[in-house]
Amino acid sequence: MTKSIATAMVAALTAMTVYAGAGMLGGAADAAACAEAEGAECAAACPGDCDGDGAVRINELVLLVRVALDLEELSACAGSDRDADGSISIEELIAAVDGSLNGCPVVIEFTGFEADDVLALADDDLDGRDNDTPGSAAARQYIIDQIRGFAAGLDSGASGDDAYLQPFDRGTNVLGVIPGGELADEYVIVGAHYDHLGGCSGVCNGATDNAAGVAAVLAIGRSIAAIGTPPRRSVVLAFWDREEDGLLGSSYYVNNPPVPLADTIAYLNFDIQGANLLPSLRKFSFAVGAETGGDLLLDAVAEATARVDLDIRRLSQIFGQGRSDYVWFIRRQIPTVFFSDSTGPCYHTAADDVSVVDFDKLAQQSESGFHLTYMLTETDTPPSFAMAPLVVFPDATRVLDVIDAAVASDLDLFGPTDRAALLDFQSDLAAVVAEGEANFGDDDIGALAAGVAGVITNLSNVPCDGFLEP
Ligand SMILES: [Zn+2]
């Protein structure tokens, strides 16, 4: 609290005393006067108890202080009663006055998660959201309806809902922007593909792949917008089409970017979220490729993921296997992180439905993504693209922890052949880790990448189950 605010507070409280001393807190005459007046006018007519009910309510108090300070903006910081307990504490009053003098206090809170996003996008009515179908159009409309209130369309040449659309060959990306403040010409892109397979063995609703990723991006957008003051940099919300046909929507975007790639400081990709590979891996998730933004991005990911009760492991980009929209951004040398639970037993089957979504996990992944997004919008020094080794020693230790957990609890979910392969990989990997970082070499890199690819393949043989908390 600065000195000038302290002085203003004293003036305000003195003014209140004067009003009270003059018998102006309440009374039928005041109530009658208030009936004729509204807002600041009302406060001027009868400061204090505007409605004459004998009590000074929060809004009345705020109006009173506003009149005393001759400030127009005080009630704009509507968070006066921040704990919503119906009364305003001295701290809350100070925050309201401080906000009116210095801008409303910024509250960084994750508020935007809606499980309904997944339910709506994975609904049977959308028929698996295959591109160029009525279900796909319905998914787009749903997304636009969600973001219209806080994000502008990225196509400034179009109007209405069309401004959110980026059509390409038999596909349409949905793009919105939350305009930044001081550095509005720099962008953080947060993206997820909204398309899925349509039919596979039945209707494939793609709940974790990738209605859940879309829900994460929507949650991040809502939460950024709810902060109240614009983020320093602009945030682009990107919903890609035709990912399932070969990452086509995101490819089109980087070849036809509505905002310059050179001013895009980071891309965050969410694909397959709220999914459990095995019962023992409920808390595990992966953040792939952060080394593309050097230590700055690696550290930011560590900080953001530490804010939730999940074990989100950083792994080098090779472990993403080039299987999602993030690849084009790395090729354009944009620092990129790919958040994924990896492909598991329900991958690309009709059983990837809302019943297997771990909503608590998804909410936490969204929250972690929000904190990372916000850090990137605000940071003085954005990450710059960095070349890194394909695989580093910490990848080996991080993967080994995951394998150890799976072997300890879930070995019987694998058939005999896959079980033997898993145990072989575990012992090979344990040997690599035991040899230490100094002895970590090219042969280990190949074995690690191949071993992980083998596990991912064998996970598709495990019976599909969400492995939700019993
Ligand atoms: Zn997919």
Q: What's the layout of helices and strands?
A:
Elements: H1 3-21, H2 28-36, H3 39-45, H4 58-69, H5 90-102, H6 115-121, H7 134-147, E1 152-153, E2 165-168, E3 171-178, E4 183-193, E5 198-200, E6 202-204, H8 207-226, E7 233-240, H9 248-255, E8 264-270, E9 284-288, H10 294-305, E10 311-315, H11 326-331, E11 336-340, H12 359-378, H13 393-410, H14 416-435, H15 442-459
Parallel strand pairs: 4-7, 4-8, 8-11, 9-10
Antiparallel strand pairs: 1-3, 2-3, 3-7, 5-6, 9-11
Helix pairs in contact: 1-4, 3-4, 6-8, 8-12, 10-12, 13-14, 14-15
Give the tags.
alpha/beta, Aminopeptidase, disordered N terminus, 470 residues, binds zinc ion, 3 domains
Verbal overview:
By secondary structure, this protein is of the alpha/beta class. It has 3 domains: 3-102, no CATH class; 115-388, Zn peptidases (Aminopeptidase); 395-459. It is 43% helix and 13% strand. It has helices at residues 3-21, 28-36, 39-45, 58-69, 90-102, 115-121, 134-147, 207-226, 248-255, 294-305, 326-331, 359-378, 393-410, 416-435, 442-459, and strands at residues 152-153, 165-168, 171-178, 183-193, 198-200, 202-204, 233-240, 264-270, 284-288, 311-315, 336-340. Strands 1, 2, 3, 4, 7, 8, 9, 10 and 11 form a 9-stranded mixed β-sheet that branches. A two-stranded antiparallel ribbon has the order 5-6. A hairpin with a 2-residue loop joins strand 2 (165-168) and strand 3 (171-178). The model is unreliable at 1-32 and 71-78 (pLDDT under 50). Zinc ion binds at residues 209, 244, 348.
